Amino acid sequence: MEEQQQHKRRKRYKGTHPRKFSEKYKELNPEKYQDDVKKIIGQGKTPAGMHISIMVQEILDFLQIQPGQVGYDATLGYGGHTRRMLECLHGQGHMYATDVDPIESEKTKKRLAELGFGEDILTIRRMNFSEIDKVADEKFDFVLADLGVSSMQIDNPERGFTFKQDGPLDLRLDPTSGTSAAQRLRELDEDELVGLLVENSDEPYAQCIASEIMRTFARGETIDTTRQLYDAIARALSFLPKSEQKDMVKKSCQRCFQALRIDVNSEFEVLYAFLEKLPTVLKPGGRVAILTFHSGEDRLVKKAFKQGVRDGVYREAARDVVRPSAQECYQNPRAHSTKMRWAIKA
Ligand SMILES: C[S@@+](CC[C@H](N)C(=O)[O-])C[C@H]1O[C@@H](n2cnc3c(N)ncnc32)[C@H](O)[C@@H]1O
Questions:
Q1: Residue 297 CA, ligand 1 centroid: distance in Å
Q2: CATH architecture of 174-264
Q3: pLDDT tens for each residue of 306-321
Q4: Is the confidence metric ipTM above 0.85 for this complex?
Q5: Which CATH class is domain 56-152+268-345?
């Protein structure tokens, strides 16, 4: 009898085109694999362990940073903006930077120290920017806030910010405190959930989505992962014509994830507190630039700056938003929704 040859499937080598976040070891070590990282950025993508800073030149042009000044970056993230602002100080002056994220802040602190920006010139605090009045004992010549989430947070499925990969439905910027999005969903009733989706993200299908989420819980099923929430949203929108469904589900997912993120991180409340205290920490003539990523944030900033000019707190404020160039949006699609506003203290 002929010996049967058993076909053995060759094990797929995952190093060349990894799909999973955890396998992207080159992107997660940008200092070590600089050439690979440059190639990825050149393709208009953000490497997994990195964040590409947005509107850097527009921000620097406006802030007009001089050696010897004192500055504050409210949203450290990957430290890209902080680094560029520090370079403008030419070793004289000081910068403070805050972030609530304990995971990424530590890595950024180490990375910036290795680049020569140690504690003599940069103080990094793990703090919410709503406590802007407690960051330093001195006032600032310039302040930057680049709101929202970093690419590192979005891309890491363990953090639960993306529906593109499965992970725990968390969405907290600081996963060590507060309530996860999964827990929040269990706490809300249907009307509260509709309100959250409409107020935070103008979700047009808020009622159908909230009803489907409640039905899911009533069946005894859970929504503890990003995939489970995606599936519930897809079921809620299954009445739409097949040709539109995929696109509509994606857009609703983006809005619903954003709405939940705003809620679990109290994003409007902390931004409001930041804007209210901001004039008290700026020196006369001090400059502030804020990057926002959705209309709710932009409305708050616009209103605060306008009111500040009316009250004589600010000498001047941006009349219109400043947008990233078409070239920047092409090179970094995450810049598309960015709006920058600025103000100068009286
Ligand atoms: C868009 S990223 C900043 C990226 C940074 N400008 C850079 O160039 O790498 C926003 C960062 O702000 C942080 N953040 C968001 N809300 C915050 C808050 N209320 N207080 C402090 N940090 C906050 C996030 O954790 C995230 O790291």
A1: 14
A2: Orthogonal Bundle (1.10)
A3: 999 999 999 999 999 9
A4: yes
A5: alpha beta
